[in-house]
């Protein structure tokens, strides 16, 4: 990339990383550039960055996208982005192309804040709430064509895992029902200040061309969560709350455990439970 960016120093002299917020500030600019490049389309009108910290990733998004909105709960980070960061990148930043919001993404009314157009989501996500961020993003799937960024490595692997894997679970199935999931690369602890005790992983979720399911989607979510909440049991035992008929429980699929089922098989399972409820009630 020919354009040179000011190196954002990530140290206690600027913004102090706060343990209770799960903050570990990325300091490796090459990795920040690589994460910014994980979004495959340059045509997105709006990109929402979650947890910008001191803007090490943000600086590679501004100029690349028409509108970048950075959301953080840390007032110290917000103040830094609104002063030092904006002054450093004054030639690139306008009020139209970059906005900082003090908000908790998990509690934020995203569509009121951003409008109901399409937008991508990216970030170096706080590890202590990263799974919840994915679940909320999935609720916004009609508006989010692409989602990428950095997680604790094991969480990123779990999201991208396939059937048969020991880490395949609720996050895997619900994410892959609507998105193509790809684990991209691993980041070592030394790339952060302070360094976390674990490796990190960067992934990309790209929404499927057809992302509507051939079943009741609320029921699908309920079936997946209920099955994996007792993942060691067969589906015949873990799905008892659905009051299944004797005939349906004889179906071969109920002899399997949840980690054996693909997304399409979970859709099929949900269809069977829906049909069974109609025929027996």
Automatic annotation (TrEMBL):
One of its GO terms (molecular function) is methyltransferase activity. Its EC number is 2.1.1.182. InterPro entries: KsgA/Erm (IPR001737), rRNA_Ade_diMease-like_C (IPR023165), rRNA_Ade_methylase_Trfase_N (IPR020598), rRNA_adenine_dimethylase (IPR011530), SAM-dependent_MTases_sf (IPR029063). S-adenosyl-L-methionine binds at residues 24, 26, 51, 72, 104, 124. It catalyses: adenosine(1518)/adenosine(1519) in 16S rRNA + 4 S-adenosyl-L-methionine = N(6)-dimethyladenosine(1518)/N(6)-dimethyladenosine(1519) in 16S rRNA + 4 S-adenosyl-L-homocysteine + 4 H(+). This is Ribosomal RNA small subunit methyltransferase A. SMART domains: rADc (SM00650). Its main location: cytoplasm. GO terms for biological process: methylation. PROSITE patterns: SAM_RNA_A_N6_MT. Keywords: Cytoplasm, Methyltransferase, RNA-binding, rRNA processing, S-adenosyl-L-methionine, Transferase. It comes from Psychroflexus planctonicus. CDD domains: AdoMet_MTases. It is found in: Cytoplasm. Residues 31-209 form the Ribosomal RNA adenine methylase transferase N-terminal domain.
């Amino acid at each position: 990339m020919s354009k040179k960016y000011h190196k954002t120093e990530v140290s206690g002299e600027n913004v102090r990383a706060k343990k209770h917020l799960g903050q570990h500030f990325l300091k490796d600019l090459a990795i920040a550039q690589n994460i910014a490049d994980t979004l495959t389309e340059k045509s997105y009108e709006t990109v929402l960055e979650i947890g910008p910290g001191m803007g090490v990733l943000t600086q590679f998004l501004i100029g690349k996208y028409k509108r970048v909105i950075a959301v953080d709960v840390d007032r110290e980070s917000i103040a830094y982005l609104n002063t030092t960061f904006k002054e450093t990148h004054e030639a690139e930043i306008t009020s139209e192309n970059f906005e900082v919001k003090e908000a908790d993404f998990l509690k934020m009314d995203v569509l009121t804040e951003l409008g109901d157009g399409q937008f991508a989501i990216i970030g170096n996500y706080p590890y202590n709430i990263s799974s919840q961020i994915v679940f909320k993003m999935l609720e916004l799937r009609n508006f989010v064509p692409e989602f990428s960024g950095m997680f604790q490595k094991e969480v990123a692997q779990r999201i991208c895992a396939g059937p048969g894997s020991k880490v395949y679970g609720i996050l895997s199935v619900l994410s892959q029902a609507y998105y193509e999931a790809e684990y991209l690369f691993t980041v070592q602890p030394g790339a952060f200040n302070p360094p976390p005790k674990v490796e990190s992983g960067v992934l990309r979720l790209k929404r499927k061309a057809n992302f509507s399911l051939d079943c009741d989607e609320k029921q699908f979510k309920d079936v997946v969560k209920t099955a994996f909440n007792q993942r060691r049991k067969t589906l015949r035992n873990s799905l008892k709350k659905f009051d299944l008929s004797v005939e349906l429980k004889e179906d071969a699929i109920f002899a399997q455990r949840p980690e054996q089922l693909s997304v399409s098989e979970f859709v099929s399972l949900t269809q069977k439970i829906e049909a069974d409820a109609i025929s027996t009630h």
